[in-house]
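Morning F.,

Quick status update on the modeling queue. The single chain you submitted on Monday has been processed. Sequence for confirmation:
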Amino acid sequence: MTKKLVIVESPAKAKTIEKFLGRDFEVRASMGHIMDLPKKGLGVNTRKDFAPQYEIIEKKDKLIDDLKAASKRADEVFLAPDPDREGEFIAWSLKETLGLQHPHRAVFNEITRSAVQDAIKKPRVINEDLFNAQQARRVLDRLVGYKISPLLWRRIQSGTSAGRVQSVALRLICDREAEIRAFVPEEYWSIIATLSKKRQQERFEAQLITRLKDITAFNSQEGANGSEEPVPQAALNGKSAIAEKGRIKISSKEEADAILADLRGATYTVLKVEEKEQRRQPNPPYTTSTMQQEASVRLYFKPKRTMSLAQHLYEGIEMGERGHQGLITYMRTDSTRISDEAQAKVKSYIASEYGQPYVGQGRTGKAKATTQDAHEAIRPTDVTLTPKTVKPYLTAEQFKLYDLIWRRFVASFMTPAVFDTVRVDITAAQYVFRANGSHLKFPGFYAVWPREEDEKMLPALTAQEVLDLHDLKPEQHFTQPPPRYTEASLIKELEEQGIGRPSTYVPIISTIQDRGYVDQEQRRFIPTWL
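Structure tokens below.
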């Protein structure tokens, strides 16, 4: 007789967990949700505290009968769906449908032997608050969609729909399109000087930044930036015209030509050389949102594909002699928090592989007001399972995503990169040019995270030194409208405005595309005319 029954959502998860538990356990899968609101009708009792009226999902009857039979054979039942709102609802659904009196709720953030066994040893009861939160969101979604969608059918066309979150996302895209159409570009010019030390071959470029009389105002604004900066995120937006206090503004070719006339006969003299050390901090580990954004920009994965790959990495991969093993922690999270145990392990790994000077304190970011912090950040379950180690067992896409997650996690616990930077201001007539150079002094987290920008070296220069001018290059530009949203930048905007949750970003984007509300051109969203 089976003494203990464990129920999870998916067969893949069941297959992994089964290997971590002894013969006294039977692990079964519910195949996702077993009950939901009805497809037809509101399914919400608006006269009785908006109570949802659930029904068994079609074609789930046999599965439920099998689970009932298995639960009757068991002395104990452990409900182990995912550790989030939806998982709590599935656990509640199983309790109610199977008629379980005192089931255990087993929760784990990673599918590893130690995490699963610990969850079985220390179960809890179903969290009513988490369950109620899921119900509230589900009821709100139904009320908004059910009440507004028929209006759209009458006024626009059949098959259209509204949603609590999807409609807001669509509004963001439409508002951005309106901004773009209303945008009037402005002309501006830049001037680049190619210079060298006297009678030297090595040349460098400097950009016209301001007039000599405005240099103090220009520098005072730049001074607010500080000496530490995080590693640049993958670019999500386009460029606009530079608009800084004190910066010279050249609005036409005539203005540029007048300045060039002053500059061509001028003496180019070093005004100031400023050398300093600059530290660049690593980014914190991934949340669902930041993982989707970077996978979109760096790997060209759609968010839906990213989450599918992450689901497989979480539920477990067959790894030869190692068996079926979960490779990452739960992938739906808004937290950058890392457990004390995982912190200790990654610091030990960094010290062993790179040396103690590379071990940092850890970048976990600041929690936002809307952060629930229910789970850890997304990280490898075992930092010693390097991308090289697991590559033979993964598909090409799985490997790319795991490599990104692993590197981001390890980098977040490494020391800052240290640069020696030099800033040279050069006067010519009444104008000031600026040249910037940098040299990587200590790689820090760049030992594991790819660095994309090249070093820019300058020759050794001193104040009052006179330079040779080789070329002056004027260039015309126009200010750019705000860019259309990509999948990555839309997710970023939704997160910043507190719209949706990690579990809803993919369905939102899929819905507005599948129903023809938006098209994509060069991976950017354009609203359609219905």
